[in-house]
Every structure is written in structure tokens, then in C-alpha cells.
Amino acid sequence: MPKQLIPIANKPVLAHIVENLRALGISQVGIVVGDHAEEIRAALGDGSSLGVQITYVRQDAPRGLADCLKVARAFLREEDFVVFLGDNMLPDGVADVSADFRTSGAAAEILVHRVDDPRPFGVAEVDADHRVTRLTEKPDVPATDLAMIGVYFFTPAIHEAVASIGPSLRGELEITDAIQWMVERGRHVRAKLYTAYHADTGTVEEALKCNRELLKAVRPEVSGKVDDTSELIGPVLIEQGAHVIGSRIVGPAIIGGGTLVEDSYVGPHTSVGEDCVLTMAGVGYSIVLNGATISGVRGINGSIIGRQATVTSAAGQHRLMIGDHTDIQLAVP
Fold first, then answer.
1. Is 14 in the same domain as 158?
2. Is the separation of the CB atoms in 174 and 165 below 8 Å?
3. What residues make up the domain containing 100?
4. Measuring CA to CA, which residue among 173, 176, 157 is closest to residue 165?
5. Angstrom distance (rounded) from CA 163 to CA 157
6. Measuring CA to CA, how many Å separate 104 from each of 108, 188, 189?
7. Handedness of CA 214, 215, 219, 225 (dihedral sign)
8. The pLDDT value given to residue 321
9. pLDDT single digits (tens) 196-233
10. Under DSSP, is residue 283 helix (H, G, I), strand (E, B) or coil?
11. CATH of the domain at 56
12. Do 162 and 271 belong together in one domain?
């Protein structure tokens, strides 16, 4: 599945991003899509359930973030806009950055944060007035520790820059190159230091950490059914249609609608999606996607269980069907 649809606290990453945008007063959202266009459209629809209107913009091949602006040119028209990478999670939002951009008179404003090793990122150099003096993509010897976060505020001036740059060595139109083009021509580009929590959910580890962070906001609520032999400890959300029988659930945790948890243990920082079945199972610090089944297997931890996946026990042996690029770690007696 596209990583932008991985559920964090039982909601796709893209849905969280759209909510960030809506909080800025944005009502028109364009999503640049490629091979997973239909899956993304099925998940978000026309945006009405999220309080916005979504337009899907097709990019026929991944040619870089600046190329996304090029293919979305008709949608963007001559308006100011914000670009938000689809696997970025900023739970506290960017309202302060938006307000700063609106009043600064800058042609562009970027988010940066301090990192121990900036080499895998675009790196910004700024002056005392927060004005960007130089941007470098993945430098071998970084000049600062200010790494760019994938959120950018632009005026229409960026379109001239995108039209003026060529592909990088990896054959893509880099947004870093477009912004650097503006800097070199004296355009006012600002950097805003972002100190709140944020995550790139492109890896299993970061998705789990982000899930843990968002589950901190869970409040105890039981809309489904929990029998008298079950125990709920801490903030546990049981969604409507879920059924918990003879089980122990330690929050923060979410049990999605239509899910059955029977004779099982669900540990902290776990989100279980809709229509799952957990019987004689034990799972903690994990994300279980819609329709998954876990039966007779305990000790599952730090895992992401995919949609409609089945995890069951077998006497004396391991029997696995493993997809491409899967990471499996088995406990050896």
C-alpha cells in the first residue's frame, strides 16, 4: 500500500495532513498522484468528509517535487499555496508558520529543524533575520544542522523558478534547486525553525513512533461492547461495533469498529483497525490494519500487520508467506 495511507492512530497519514491544511483555512487541496491514484482516491474521496474539496492531479512518472508543481500549475493558478509532503506528520500543525508567511512579504518560507546528521537532507543556511542565504541538497559536508522539513509556503514566484531549472544528477526536478534559484536572484526566502514533534512516516520505525505519539491524545471511551470479564486499563478507545471478550487492553490503545478481541492482550501504543479478529493473541506497540487476523500468537511487538493479513500459530514450525522487501524477525527458542 502507499505509505501515505498507513493508518496512524487509525487514520491515514494523508487524512492527518488534510486536517493540518484545513486548520489553516484551506478549502482547496490538490493531491499529486501516481501509480496508487485509485487507492488514494478510494481512501479520501472528494474530501467532503474532511471538510475540503480535493482535486487529484496525475503525475505520469516520479520526476521530483518541483515537477509536482509543474503538473499542478493549472490547479494552483496565481494563488499563494503550501506544499506538504504526503508522508510528513506534524500533529501540532503549522498555523504559526502560515501566519508568519502571510505577514513577512517573503516569496517563500520553508520549515527547518535541527538534526545530528544533516547529510541525508536538504540543508539551509540562514542569516540573523531568518533569511535563507543558501540551500544544499544532501551535502557531504553540511554547513549547518538545519535540515528542511517537507513543508513549503510559496507565492506564485516559485513557478518561474521551476520553469528555469533543469533535472538534477538523479534526473529529477528538485524543489531545493528551485528555491535556491530564487535565493540567487535576491528573492526573499525565509526559514522557520520548527521545534514541535514531527515525523517522516516512510519507515516502520517512524510510523510506530508517530503512532505512539498520537495515541497520547486518546481519551477513554467505550462505544462498542466490553464484557464483564475483560479489563481496560488507562486510555482505551473502543469504537462502535467492536467487541471485547475475556481480554485485557492496556492503553493508550484504539480498537477499531467491527473488530473482535477475544481471550487476548493488547498492550500500550497499539492501534487495531476495523473488522479485525484477535483471538488468543498478544500484541503491543504495533499497528494492525483493517481486516487483519491474529490467532494463537502472542508476543507480537513493534510490528505493522497489513490489511487482511493472517497471523496464526503452527505446531513446531514457522510457515510464512512474505511479500517483497518484508522484514521478519522470529524469536528462536
1. yes
2. yes
3. 3-210
4. 173
5. 11
6. 10, 9, 10
7. positive
8. 72
9. 999 988 888 999 999 999 999 999 999 999 999 999 99
10. strand
11. 3.90.550.10
12. no
Sheet architecture: strand order including 287-288? 221-222, 236-238, 253-255, 270-272, 287-288, 304-305
Confidence of residue 28 (pLDDT cuts 50, 70, 90): very high
Query: What is the Cα–Cα distance from 174 to 66, expressed in whole angstroms?
Result: 5
CB 180 within 8 A of CB 94: no
Sort 184 into a burial class: Cβ within 10 Å, 0-12 / 13-18 / 19+: exposed
The pLDDT of 137-143, averaged and rounded, is 90
- Residue 182 burial (10 A CB sphere; 0-12, 13-18, 19+): buried
In this structure, the answer to whether residues 49 and 165 fall within a common structural domain is yes
Q: Are residues 79 and 108 in the same domain?
A: yes
Cell of 7: 493508518
Region class of 77: left (phi > 0), else alpha (psi between -120 and 50), else beta: left
Instruction: Determine the average pLDDT of the residues in 23-30.
Output: 96
Number of residues written out for the chain: 333
Number of domains present in the structure of the chain:
2
- State yes or no: pLDDT of 109 exceeds 70: yes
Supply φ then ψ for residue 84, to 5 degrees. Answer: -135, 115
* Residue whose C-alpha is closest to residue 32's, from 70, 5, 77, 79: 70
3-class secondary-structure state, position 203: coil
- CA 285 – CA 36 distance, rounded (Å): 28
In sequence order, the β-bridge partners of residue 191 are: 110
Give domain status of residue 288, yes or no: yes
pLDDT tens digits, 160-179: 999 999 998 888 999 999 99
Contact in structure between 57 and 30 (CB atoms under 8 Å): yes
Taken in order 254, 259, 265, 271, the sign of the CA dihedral is negative
Please tell me the pTM assigned to this model.
0.91
Cell numbers standing for residue 4: 501515505
